Amino acid sequence: xxxxxxxxxxxxxxxxxxxxxxxxxxxxxxxxxxxxxxxxxxxxxxxxxxxxxxxxxxxxxxxxxxxxxxxxxxxxxxxxxxxxxxxxxxxxxxxxxxxxxxxxxxxxxxxxxxxxxxxxxxxxxxxxxxxxxxxxxxxxxxxxxxxxxxxxxxxxxxxxxxxxxxxxxxxxxxxxxxxxxxxxxxxxxxxxxxxxxxxxxxxxxxxxxxxxxxxxxxxxxxxxxxxxxxxxxxxxxxxxxxxxxxxxxxxxxxxxxxxxxxxxxxxxxxxxxxxxxxxxxxxxxxxxxxxxxxxxxxxxxxxxxxxxxxxxxxxxxxxxxxxxxxxxxxxxxxxxxxxxxxxxxxxxxxxxxxxxxxxxxxxxxxxxxxxxxxxxxxxxxxxxxxxxxxxxxxxxxxxxxxxxxxxxxxxxxxxxxxxxxxxxxxxxxxxxxxxxxxxxxxxxxxxxxxxxxxxxxxxxxxxxxxxxxx
Length: 470
Prior knowledge:
The chain is an alpha/beta fold and 470 residues long. It is built from 16 helices and 21 strands.
């Protein structure tokens, strides 16, 4: 079994266009490996932006027909979404090529660097990106493997979810959704929060407890989150957004003006207070920022450097990404997809305008069924009387799951709380249906994950809104 990045040169990814897979592929290519991969979305003669960017990064791309796997291939990587019935898996087995899961490969990569593993059910991508920017300004030349594209890296013509630096530190997202977080032996473990998402709370607590035990040097938790707080190693190392907290790093004096937030962080060790200003929205992003600062400062980076880096923070792809403003209507695209994230996303937009119209496409029948009551509770609590929530039908990614729930059931539940909730089964009918409600000033917030067509859909909403407003 492969146990080190030094044990292979030629590696092939099945499903290379996926966010997690493409990040690892780009990272390995950046370290000098010969990387190739296939994806079901790659078709000869069809333009594919992800494929084009992977090829620019030196990754050879193939259709998912087995043609890319040869006798030279030393390792095949599969995601959790790839089933054993896929032809390429059979071919790799026939050629006796070792096969590892994406999470196993990430654990192998993590062992090659000093690693900061960012864990939690919300905020991992944002906090990882903030850490990356802080380490860059401190001239530590960090590497990153992220679950989302950093805008600063996307501007370089890349996908943006991975970059290789010359320094000793690697920043990774530690994913709890498939339990793989327990595979990482990181020098630094950061636990942002624990909320019901893919698993029941008991299972999540077991997973994050093992994450803590696997951290070798510094373990930092969010004292504001009750479940994360229970796993604290030393409160002086932790962070909080409650001003009265005795945590080592405490955020205070939050304010938001349109798409900008300001706050201060008190460092308990020397009782200094440092002011921060970021071009982003929401108290949850203040929480992400103080988490990043708590890590960076305890690894030797000054508070002033942290503040300067976050002033220039450009955000990440599809995390409260402003697509545009037209006649007082803000159109914002966000990756929110679980109950707590959706509620936080709505709340963050409420400081921008007196009315928020949120659209949400749940993904997966199993997850939606599992979180039905939580979606109803969290979204209802977040909505103001003037706000609206719209949902289209659940995104189906394939497989054998039973389609025994509809988004309409979530909408009906929210209606029963007295809030304004509407169901429009086909998302392409949404703009026409919602158009009478779009009275400026307001925010049109588009939420959803996993569906590769969401980017095109959200940009289409913005473009059509522009044309209709002219």
